[in-house]
Amino acid sequence: MSERDEIAVVGAGLAGCLLACFLARRGYPVALYERRPDPRTGKVERGRSINLALSERGLDALRRIGLDEQVMADALPMRGRMIHPVEGEQQFQSYSVSGDRAINSISRGALNNALLTAADALPGVRIAFDHRLVGLDPTTGDMTFETPQGKVAASASVVLGADGAGSAVRGQLLGYGVLTESLDFLDYGYKELTIPPLGGDFALDPNALHIWPRGTSMMIALPNPDRSFTCTLFWPTHGTASFASLGSPAAIEQHFATHYPDLIPLAPNLVDDYQHNPIGVLGTVRCTPWQVDGKVGLLGDAAHAIVPFYGQGANCAFEDVVELDRCLDECDDEWSAALPLFQHRRLENAEAIAQMALANFVEMRDKVASPLFQTGKRIEHALERALPGRYVSRYELVSFSTTPYAEVRRRVRRQHQALGAVAVGAAALLAGAIGAVIRRGRRG
Ligand code: FAD
């Protein structure tokens, strides 16, 4: 392989580390710049998305660099949703018709560290921690970083921004007037709370993603390998019923006792968690273009952050890396061709999952508890059983396949249209039959 110029990857988060691995395997020298200190030696930030659900798209990417088994060794498979009504029994809703397909609860920190260590071990990868990108000239690839020692200059033949939803690389392109962006924030925020182990064991079923659907608010809980659960409460940030409305410990306890009564005995640190854990923001980032002259590119949340309600942000970011690798293959590593091709292929898919994630918020918050929704799910599973491979639910296609997100939307639309046509035909047949019976009755 011929000598290649150094590629800069900004952000050693999930996408950046995976990307460094893929690029190093292609023979590129890679400089991975990260604003934080090495997370393998430091402490985890309080209340910041401790775990996440990894599904087929993410696993497919990890398999390609041989990291899937290591990551899955500590994964906790969640085979369905466990609904917690305000009163009454918990109800389990399987994710798949067979009941054995699962999304996986993974420690975000452990996943990031595994990817970082994998990248670090590859020849050609150097990692610069405590390097916050503050300047970028998209015409030259010249970068400026803030470090504990002061400002540092660096340059690369290609700069790839994998620096998350608040991307500084995207901000620089915006400043140069070569990119436009839109940020759609929800008026909901999120706060993390903890359910510790109970008597040394999980306090809830560890094989499910737990949901407390409450209409205007919602809480979910995912299991952790230490037998605790991390709960995430989604609630408006302002208004009479919102994060802003609970001040005192008594008000916090009263609120949870009313709306989440089964949480109270399980979360002894509830008030402390509530008062000290930060409120995170939720939103959708859209921007265009995702690349400038084959010299600067964006991927992962930096290009298309989405709301977390389908558990797909990281999965989608990983899929970006696989697609970019494919584009480099097809374009003989000609970045000026590969980056535009990558954008062309991924843009509609990123938009599709952004919209499905927003729609899933309504489903999780409002619909999952309703008998009508539950009947619909039973019918859907019956259809999947009756028409294997021909009728496949949206959830299954998103979480358990690598079918491009935009194709998932088109396919689900086609399935619904076909079902609608069948329903109309069946209704017409039924109406005809009833009419015949009535006519016969009149004659008789
Ligand atoms: P990030 O993970 O944000 O990484 C960006 C990196 O860039 C960080 O290390 C950061 O320190 C660094 N950086 C930032 N600015 C600079 C700078 N100026 N210079 C240098 N470095 C910089 N996704 C799922 O797939 N499943 C889930 O279940 C799921 N749950 C979620 C729950 C919540 C509450 C939230 C908020 C998100 C969730 N996501 C989930 C989404 C997922 O976290 C993101 O999509 C994913 O982290 C994106 O990866 P990334 O590498 O693009 O960005």
Please specify the SSE layout and strand pairing:
Layout (H helix, E strand, L loop, with lengths): L6 E4 L3 H12 L4 E4 L17 E4 L1 H9 L3 H5 L3 E3 L1 E4 L7 E4 L8 E5 H13 L4 E4 L3 E6 L4 E6 L2 E6 L2 E4 L6 H8 L4 E16 L12 E7 L2 E7 L5 E8 L12 H11 L10 H7 L3 E9 L2 E2 L3 E3 L2 H4 L8 H18 L4 H33 L3 H16 L7 H7 L4 H39 L1
Parallel strand pairs: 1-2, 1-12, 2-8, 5-14, 12-19
Antiparallel strand pairs: 3-7, 4-7, 5-6, 9-10, 10-11, 13-16, 13-17, 14-15, 15-16, 18-19
The structure holds flavin-adenine dinucleotide.
EC number: 1.14.13.9
Keywords: FAD, Flavoprotein, Membrane, Monooxygenase, NADP, Oxidoreductase, Pyridine nucleotide biosynthesis, Transmembrane, Transmembrane helix
Pfam families: FAD_binding_3
The number of domains: 3
Strand arrangement in the largest pleated sheet: 6-5-14-15-16-13-17
Which ligands are bound? flavin-adenine dinucleotide
User: What percent strand?
Assistant: 15-25%
Distance between the termini: 89 Å
